[in-house]
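Fold this: Helix-turn-helix domain-containing protein
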Amino acid sequence: MSDDLLTPADLAAMLGMSPRTLANWRSTGKGPPYLKIGVEPPEGHQDRRKVRYQRQIAEKWALAHKYQRTVAR
């Protein structure tokens, strides 16, 4: 299963963007669905669980957001 999971850095490289962009998208509810691996922290503690993306879902998300051209302004 680990081959089917991508780190944020892996997915960012695949999409040609910064891992920070993915982090921003996660915080605003945008971008592809992701998993948090590990034990949930107690209330009031920082969440340091590992973020992973399922390869197949991330690829489907990327294809669904593919555009041939944009409208000229």
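Helices lie at 8-15, 19-28, 55-64. The chain is about 40% helix and 15% strand.
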